[in-house]
């Protein structure tokens, strides 16, 4: 069975985010194991941005299985329409280990995580709050999965 980890840097989400993510992730049932893990953000202190990013990188890398296929959620990443995302998801899942979708903190990713990434995905050229990005990732993941498995979710217009 394939596995997807969504590793998200941030504090505990508000109830509406947990409810929305939970709704989409529950739709996979036993067909795909999807887990959302919280990664605590680093404190922004006298150590500066580089130190904070290094600390978040270390936390993300510690939560990332060695066999994972990491994909960064990054505004500079590849933009997909729904069908193309389904194709990308299919390719990402073929690598055997778990697929890891990484949502960085407020300042993105440091060089350690960027070096480990195998791909990057941009939700949009728009900027979204990190909590909303979690919901969008969960929904788009389900939409792509439903396209791959011909489930009645996505509709062409």
Task: Please outline the helices and strands.
Elements lengths: L2 E7 L5 H12 L6 E7 L8 H16 L5 E10 L3 H12 L5 E5 L7 H6 L2 E3 L8 H19 L9
Parallel strand pairs: 1-2, 1-4, 3-4, 3-5
Helix pairs in contact: 1-5, 3-5
Averaging pLDDT over every residue, what do you get?
A: 92
The biggest sheet, with number of strands, parallel, antiparallel or mixed sense and barrel status, is: 5 strands, parallel
Query: pLDDT under 50 segments (min length 5)?
Result: none
CA(first)-CA(last) distance: 32 Å
Oligomer designation: single chain
Strand fraction equals 15-25%
Radius of gyration: 15 Å
The helix fraction, in percent, is: 40-55%
Overall 3D shape: globular
Order of helices and strands: EHEHEHEHEH
**What's the number of extended β-strand segments?**
5
Number of helices: 5
Which strands sit side by side, in order, in the main sheet? 2-1-4-3-5
Structural class, by secondary structure, is alpha/beta
């Amino acid at each position: 069975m394939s596995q997807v980890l969504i590793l998200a840097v941030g504090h505990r989400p508000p109830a509406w985010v947990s409810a929305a993510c939970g709704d989409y992730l529950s739709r996979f049932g036993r067909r795909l194991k999807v887990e959302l893990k919280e990664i605590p953000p680093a404190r922004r202190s006298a150590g500066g941005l580089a130190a904070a990013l290094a600390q978040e990188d270390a936390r993300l890398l510690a939560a990332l299985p060695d066999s994972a296929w990491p994909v960064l959620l990054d505004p500079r990443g590849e933009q997909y329409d729904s069908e193309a995302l389904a194709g990308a998801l299919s390719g990402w899942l073929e690598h055997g280990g778990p697929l890891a979708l990484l949502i960085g903190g407020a300042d993105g990713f440091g060089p350690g995580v960027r070096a480990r990434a195998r791909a990057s995905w941009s939700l949009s050229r728009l900027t979204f709050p990190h909590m909303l990005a979690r919901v969008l990732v969960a929904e788009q993941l389900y939409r792509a999965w439903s396209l791959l498995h011909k489930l009645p979710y996505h509709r062409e217009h």
